[in-house]
Design goal:
The structure holds two protein chains of two kinds.
Chain A lengths: L5 H11 L26 E7 L3 H4 L3 H11 L4 E7 L3 H9 L18 E5 L6 H10 L15 E5 L15 E3 L3 H17 L4 H8 L5 E2 L4 E5 L5 E6 L7 E2 L27 E4 L1 E2 L10 H4 L4 E2 L2 H15 L3 E5 L9 H12 L5 E3 L10 H7 L7 E6 L3 H6 L6 H13 L4 E8 L6 H20 L6 E8 L16 H14 L5 E5 L2 H11 L6 H9 L13 H11 L3 H5 L14 E2 L4 H12 L30
Helix pairs in contact in A: 3-6, 5-17, 9-10, 13-14, 17-18
Chain B lengths: L1 E8 L8 H14 L16 E3 L8 E10 L6 H10 L7 E6 L7 H4 L2 E10 L5 H13 L4 E6 L2 E6 L4 E9 L2 E9 L8 H12 L3 E17 L2 E3 L4 H10 L1
Parallel strand pairs in B: 3-10
Antiparallel strand pairs in B: 1-3, 1-4, 2-3, 5-9, 5-10, 6-7, 8-9, 10-11
Helix pairs in contact in B: 1-2
Classes of the chains: A alpha/beta, B alpha+beta.
Chain lengths: 618, 240
């Protein structure tokens, strides 16, 4: 590929930018975007989100790290997203390499390209972005002039399918870890060490996983025989944790996009971690322990956010914001201070049992959007299996309060294909939906809409259900059809996830490094934007499995044994494997496990020896 | 207090879509610490309104916006504070406080002028250019087929064109175009060039086209005035 300078790229791109969809996606000139001097900074990082701008800009972690890195005078961080298919086609036609938004510098010119791994279905976009940048896909094909390709985020807890493309992974929270890594890269630029020596050095940083140093052997039946670490690197890589969340870096001058993004509002992170202990939930395991921010910190941050962005809505984000111990005071104080300026609050993740309709009413300026509840399973038995401590009574009470306050649209989220699920549990979904709808009718609400959405259970690494198989596609489809036929009442709207993509998600979620060639093959045969139903092409993947002789069922539909070596056994979230085993047992016994935040320790293993503890501010 | 402001939308700001422009102004005004007035009712929106939409990628040298703010304040101060919060490329040029009952921009604006720079695919003589333009203007109807979501439709673009001039500068032609605009529609500047190429065989390279809207006007009895001009403005507001 021709080497282009930033100025040349800009000139070329400007010629066709008016002709592509949403050109604002490709310009780093938004309010609060950071334009740093390329020549006055030691390390240049491109933060890469492998999806379109509107999705990537809605992700809080991306925003935190962009501003964090730029808060260091010696580092420069710019953004890059996956160009939408029309832009990609034009760039390829005109031979223009992928560039970072702020400076139009080609990705190739950066020292580091850091991808965030938010979901498995974005993996082909990573390869596509490297390819568009003219960076060799394989680590061994890259030289000293190429950037380091690194990746972090939740999927880094089982990044094995990406081994071979990514030089090293960052596990856990990056607020302290990433600057340390960039410091090492600055030194490497000054006094270059051979690649392996540098990697060995960076492997000493908390949470850094360099796959080159870990060797995997397989048994004849395809299972893993052993994973062996070379000497001089940790046998087990353990995630990095921010010790003092209250004082941790948080950007209060975030970029304000021109075009409407998915979550187009201020984001205030009230806490991190969740100890509710839902057994399917990876986030609930890998972000432990629960750490809250103090009321004072949050109010100060809100004030700064309002001044610097001009947004009229602030989302109180976390895995379960209703559980934040100061939720009531923080809402009251924010409205008291900024309500007159037209600033409203949104609570994106409310649980049925922590749900207080008064709370919802105080935050909802208009009632056009419905209320969302996630019972996840249709019967109490199955909710106990997954440890979703929500009862039918909780749900009906919340629904009743909502109807009485004037809401007429309620959304219910469920999963199908959960471990131990039977027909009774599927009927339970219909039953619950009907009870909610009937309640609304009884309370005199007209135009009731109950939206029932079902996703498909995908077993995830580092959860108590990591050993579980995903239910076979055909039987999931039967369940979806059954629900569709039985939710025909005009008060119901039924949405369901696509079986084909959930299946592929399971393959990669439980996959190992033998899947890397599959990814590459699929990418080279046109797979990209696999998470977008209008772009996903199942045929490419069917051919990929066939061509490479890989059996997807081996990954997605096989129950693993406790003594199997899991592809991610050398990576550690801090939650002990023994705890996950016990939780799996308890699930099968339909036994609930309490939330350690308000009760005794359940022994998950995260707190001891890591200098962290549960931190509640209320 | 209702403000009418003239501003530019040039450089990178030309990529901001018309639909996104309300948000850009709304957030800038909130950052400036100025409280806007909101519409009544179910879904409250700030009272900000623009004139005719500018196509994405087309620069505007002088566009207009009306903004309602809650408290009386000095015009100059308001403009200065808002300017500070606007992205590069949007520069406030002039403003005035509207009188009670002034008509909104969309009710008074009815014309726009454009400057278009286009490369010649083949060099031509100035006479040839003038001949082509003259012939085009002499046509009573210029029918153009357009592909819309509902399939191909035909429209006559000639009635919308009030003025068309062109001049050769080196290897490019600079066109000055003035069109009528209204609720019934208008003509897109590139459509005029397309038909010039097709009907009069002018060798225009439309791949290398640069369009700028130089102004939007209140056109009355053959005279163009700015929606900021007091007299023309009030007179029109009363007459129409």
């Amino acid at each position: 590929m021709t080497k282009y300078t930033a100025a040349e790229i800009r000139r070329q791109v400007e010629r066709f930018l008016p002709k592509v969809l949403k050109p604002s996606r490709y310009l780093g000139t938004e309010w609060n975007a950071i334009q740093k001097d390329w020549h006055k900074t030691d390390v240049h990082m491109a933060f890469a989100f492998p999806d379109v701008y509107e999705v990537g800009m809605s992700h809080l972690g991306t925003r935190i790290l962009y501003h964090l890195v730029n808060s260091y005078p010696e580092f420069l961080c710019e953004r890059v997203f996956t160009p939408w298919v029309d832009m990609e086609a034009t760039m390829r036609e005109k031979n223009i390499p992928l560039y970072a938004l702020e400076s139009f510098q080609p990705l190739q010119a950066f020292d580091v390209v850091g991808f965030t791994l938010q979901y498995e279905m974005s993996y082909t976009n990573i390869l596509n972005m490297l390819d568009l940048a003219g960076i060799p896909l394989r680590t061994e094909e890259r030289g000293a002039e190429d950037p380091w390709i690194i990746a972090g985020g939740p999927c880094a807890f089982n990044p094995e399918p990406l081994v071979g493309f990514i030089d090293f992974f960052l596990l856990g929270e990056s607020e302290e870890q990433l600057p340390e890594v960039l410091g090492l890269i600055a030194e490497q630029k000054k006094n270059p060490l051979p690649r392996q020596d540098f990697l060995r050095r960076v492997a000493q940083v908390q949470g850094v996983y360099v796959p080159d140093f870990y060797h995997v052997n397989y048994k004849p039946d395809g299972r893993i025989e052993k994973i062996e670490a070379e000497s001089g690197v940790p046998v087990v890589v353990e995630k990095a944790i921010v010790q003092d969340l209250d004082q941790a870096f948080f950007p209060t001058n975030p970029v304000v996009p021109y075009l409407e993004i998915v979550h187009d509002r201020m984001m205030l992170e009230v806490m991190r971690g969740c100890s509710r202990g839902c057994r399917f939930c990876q986030a609930g395991m890998i972000y432990r322990p629960v750490r809250e921010r103090s009321l004072e910190t949050l109010l100060k941050q809100t004030e700064e956010l309002v001044r610097s962005t001009g947004y009229d809505e602030i989302a109180l984000t976390s895995l379960s914001s209703g559980d934040y111990s100061c939720i009531q005071p923080v809402i009251e104080k924010i409205l008291e201070k900024h309500g007159d300026e037209g600033v409203g609050i949104s609570l994106p993740s409310l649980r049925v049992d922590s749900f207080d309709v008064e709370l919802a009413e105080s935050v909802q300026k208009t009632r056009k959007s419905g209320l969302t509840f996630a019972p996840e399973a249709g019967t109490q038995r199955l909710r106990d299996v997954i440890n979703k401590g929500v009862t039918e009574e909780n749900l009906l009470n919340a629904a009743e309060a909502a109807f009485k306050k004037g809401w007429s649209t309620i959304k219910l989220y469920f999963m199908v294909g959960l471990p131990t699920e039977t027909q009774e549990d599927i009927d339970g979904i219909i039953d619950l939906a009907k009870k909610v709808a009937n309640l609304g009718t009884k309370l005199g609400r007209r135009n009731i809409t109950i939206t029932i959405s079902t996703s498909i259970f995908v077993p995830k690494a580092h959860t108590p259900f990591q050993w579980e198989p995903q239910e076979a596609k055909a039987s999931v489809e039967l369940k979806q059809r059954y629900l569709k036929e039985n939710l025909r009442d005009r008060r119901f709207k039924y949405n369901y996830h696509d079986v084909k993509t959930s299946y592929l998600e399971a393959v990669f979620a439980k996959g190992d490094r033998r899947l890397a060639p599959l990814l590459e093959w699929a990418f080279k045969h046109g797979a990209r934007f696999d998470g977008w139903s209008d772009q996903f092409c199942e045929e490419v993947w069917i051919n990929a499995f066939k061509e490479l002789g890989i059996d997807p069922h081996f990954y997605a539909n096989r129950a693993m044994d406790y003594d199997d070596i899991l592809p991610w056994d050398h990576l550690e979230s801090g939650v002990a494997k023994q705890f996950l085993v016990e939780e799996h047992h308890r699930a099968l016994q339909e036994a609930k496990t309490i939330d350690c935040r308000h009760n005794v320790c359940t022994g998950c293993g995260i707190c001891p020896g890591r200098g962290v503890q549960i931190e509640l501010k209320g | 207090m209702r403000l009418r402001i003239a501003y530019t939308k040039v450089e990178d700001a030309k990529y901001i879509a018309h639909l996104d422009l309300t948000r850009v102004f709304e957030r800038a005004i909130r950052r400036a610490g100025i409280t806007m007035s909101y519409t009544e009712g179910f879904n409250q929106r700030p009272k900000i309104s623009f004139g005719f939409a500018l196509a994405v990628g087309t620069e505007g040298e002088r566009e207009y916006v009306d903004i309602d703010i809650q408290r009386e304040m000095d015009l100059g101060e308001a403009l200065a504070r808002i300017q500070e919060q606007l992205p590069p490329g949007i520069r406030l040029l002039q403003g005035r406080v509207l009188t009670q009952g002034a008509k909104p921009l969309m009710a008074v604006l009815n014309a726009a002028s454009y400057r278009m720079r286009v490369l010649m695919a083949l060099p031509i003589l100035p006479e040839r250019l003038q001949e082509g333009i003259g012939a085009w203007l002499a046509r009573e109807h210029v029918t153009l087929s357009r592909f819309t979501k509902r399939g191909p439709t035909e429209k006559d673009i000639r009635p919308w064109v009030k003025r068309l001039e062109g001049e050769i500068h080196g290897d490019e032609i600079i066109f000055e175009l003035e069109v009528e605009m209204g609720n019934a529609g208008s003509v897109r500047p590139e459509e005029v060039l397309v038909s010039l190429r097709e009907l009069e065989n002018l060798p225009l390279d439309l791949e290398a086209l640069h369009i700028k809207r130089t102004g939007v006007h209140v056109s009355y009895q053959g005279e163009n005035t700015s929606p900021l001009e007091h007299d023309g403005f009030v007179q029109l507001a009363e007459q129409s």
